[in-house]
Amino acid sequence: MPSIFSKILAGQIPGQFVFRDELWAALLDIRPVAPGHVLLIPLHEGQHLSDLPPVTLAALGDRLARLTATVKAASGAPAVNVVVNDGPAAGQEVPHAHLHIWPRFPDDGKGFAWPHTAYAEGELATWAVQLRSAWR
Ligand code: AMP
Asked: Could you give the C-alpha distances from 67 to 64, 80, 82, 132, in angstroms and in order?
């Protein structure tokens, strides 16, 4: 079933676009964390970043860097958050991969819950081994 983003990209549902090219598009999020919050969305429909074709992924860095600069320039913000909710357990509501970019200002009160923890003795090294063996 096409995602709501596919419907917007197909023109079936309205969206306010910042840009659209052959691989990626950016549009305004209708429920922004802050005004100027945009979504960077691949035209290819896949739920996870790892589902996207190599050509789409290869273009991601360019589009993302330009969009962070665009959001800063348009909002006057000195910083942005870039967030990906990759899977429902991470808060993904729309099953079509996308990146959130929103403006940040000093003391804007928009910090999000990101509670850091600590590793037990030896646990960090164990995780490093697990991650290195899973790297593809
Ligand atoms: P996520 O929770 O990462 O899947 O984020 C989905 C985002 O899509 C949310 O921030 C929503 O506000 C946004 N969203 C949902 N429907 C629309 C829409 N029709 N136009 C623009 N943004 C939307």
From this structure: 5, 10, 10, 31
